[in-house]
Amino acid sequence: MLDGKTLQNFALLTLKIGVNLQKGQGLEIACPVEKHKVAEEITKQAYLLGAKIVRVRWENEIVDKLSYTYADTPTLCDIPKWFIDSKNYLVEKNFCYVAIAADDPSAFKDIPSEKLAAAAKARSKALKKFSDCVMANGIRWCVVSVPTKAWAEQVFPNSLDPESDLSDAIEKTMRLDRENPTLAWKEHIDNLTKKAEYLNYKRFDSLHFKNGAGTDLTVGLLDDHVWLSAKETAKDGVSFVANMPTEEVFTAPHAKKVNGKVVSAMPLCENGKIIDGFSLTFKDGKIVDFSAEKGYDALKNLIETDQGTRRLGEVALIGKSSPIAKSKILFFNTLFDENASCHLALGKGYPTTVKDGDKLSKEELSKLGLNDSVEHVDFMIGTEDLTVIGIEKDGTKTPIFTKGDWCV
Amino acid sequence: MLDGKTLQNFALLTLKIGVNLQKGQGLEIACPVEKHKVAEEITKQAYLLGAKIVRVRWENEIVDKLSYTYADTPTLCDIPKWFIDSKNYLVEKNFCYVAIAADDPSAFKDIPSEKLAAAAKARSKALKKFSDCVMANGIRWCVVSVPTKAWAEQVFPNSLDPESDLSDAIEKTMRLDRENPTLAWKEHIDNLTKKAEYLNYKRFDSLHFKNGAGTDLTVGLLDDHVWLSAKETAKDGVSFVANMPTEEVFTAPHAKKVNGKVVSAMPLCENGKIIDGFSLTFKDGKIVDFSAEKGYDALKNLIETDQGTRRLGEVALIGKSSPIAKSKILFFNTLFDENASCHLALGKGYPTTVKDGDKLSKEELSKLGLNDSVEHVDFMIGTEDLTVIGIEKDGTKTPIFTKGDWCV
Prior knowledge:
The structure is a homodimer.
Chain A: H1 4-18, E1 26-32, H2 36-48, E2 53-59, H3 61-70, H4 73-77, H5 81-92, E3 96-100, H6 113-126, H7 128-135, E4 141-144, H8 149-155, H9 162-173, H10 181-202, E5 206-210, E6 216-221, E7 231-233, E8 239-241, E9 249-251, E10 253-263, E11 268-270, E12 273-283, E13 286-294, H11 296-303, E14 312-317, H12 323-327, H13 334-337, E15 343-347, H14 362-368, E16 376-380, E17 387-391, E18 397-402, E19 405-406
Parallel strand pairs in A: 1-2, 1-3, 3-4
Antiparallel strand pairs in A: 5-6, 5-17, 6-10, 7-8, 9-14, 10-12, 11-12, 12-13, 14-15, 15-16, 17-18, 18-19
Helix pairs in contact in A: 1-2, 5-7, 8-9
């Protein structure tokens, strides 16, 4: 279980490898109330590392669910100015931001999709300045996970001790079972960096995804695209790792150069709803058709959030031999599931996946082909038989993935 | 234990008798993270009563203690504007405010008093607009308590199950053990109201407190003083009960007409520090001498907070036959201990204890003799042998308390 020495190592990995907290810097931790001991340990370790101040933004899905159930939509969409300011404050003061993602995947299954979507949209819109900044690495941030009861019961419905099982799974993916977790992370990051360097060297014009499930999709890339992996650099010049675990190498698709059909490989948990067995068809970057066996309304609401949720903002490559993929566990949590499978994201693209993107205006990024939106939602497309072929400007083709794994 | 039906009744008493939540009104609950189930139940019942929106302000003394330990004083004194705005928001939107007081009485015993005092002062100063409004009943508010582990262990150090014992004690004082708690509260409020009406009718000029412990104090009252009890009326005209439990009948001393010496009857827990065996000597309303067997520095820092913490803002009468006094339990929590004993408060007086006080400016209130400060700290003076005599303008004396209890 995530306690004692393991919890301390978890906190230290999050702070030293994750946000790379510097002496004299502020830290905010978003944490579910039931896991207060985790936030307390991260707070303690942060202060021991020299944090200036640590604040915790507590979260509680039971209160949220009651609000979604009983409050009306206009009230849910009315985001107080002080709340928006409390987020922008983190940017102004260059805080590090640790988000503990431990949502119950079906917390809001009984709430009408329209209500959830309206509230999510209002929130995303109100916090656009903050999320734009986070996505452009304006602050150092890191998403990690700890097991909560409700989440663990969905991942291990037949277990006698779901929380313990999920804890074990998370510890493995976080490399907390290694003798020296910090060293293991450094090696892992080097390995991912090499893959990104290879792809940057090749300068593919597009990628072609194909498998037996029906995916046959060409994803055009920006001329100035940059492949990134685990280690990124924030505006203040300090490196960090935004997701732990992370197994992906990713860049931005061209918002207007995606064509064909893609079939989902795993369920998508969005806003407390599960969307499964879905497909999207693109023409010139835009979704022109879609279907879903489960959660059609939630998918429809997501796609219709704004103009940007009809297009792609990310393409990420993960081989089937990644530790998360090999675990065969469906986590119902994007942090893990996106690292088990090649994926795409609807919505906003990361400015950092464009050359000098953090120095360009929104208009300049858009002109280069980067998508913009209030949302950024990953969905998995990688299967055991997936082929990915890189196509250069002159038509030269190079296989990148065969049988669902890297071949370069 | 506070769960099931008892927890539901606790929530309903807090909402219906306490803040008297109205349909369509917002509610904020301040709650320690470890008692999240209590906040969840109050949230649920509030929505069922028709609340517009419910928000929870989560608290965690372990994180606070780490901050007090490791952050420097200027950082602790730097209260973000969004935090101040988040409190003033409650006033602007006429939210009800439920505060769950469940502090560990010695949470901050290892923190230097000066650091705690500086941070408390900065916070009180930053939140002055909000606390002024609360004390003038600008919003409806209610303080209640639930047992936390650390607090219970201090109250029942030799118990096998301190939390359960403290829970039982709280349930009794909250009248949750009665067949119909709501009805029991209505009868209790009527009884206290009658006492306040009697004192208002008498229009005493001063009260004289005397006992064998060394207390010999004359507390002058304002010409326009008003005795209040449990049930008050907020600015919006709706009644509420600000403390549950409550056993007191209280008014404002004249800031410049307190003379003599008062000896504490119970320890005072202030800012995570215990102050015990203390005495204060007043001349023309101002403290001119003080002593303490324990916590002298904390007392000194409290008194020296500002000009107003050298004078009194409240005088409250509670008989020794009050259920809390009879329990003989020292709760180390003002909400309970102040209702076991006659008490005074250093610092700000309630504008509502002056006739039409909520319509008067700060200057007008001050001119009438009401004390002002960033603080308001109760301390207990009632003993089993306490005598209180009411003295009218013409010198007529009427005994109000003999042998520590009401005699009118």
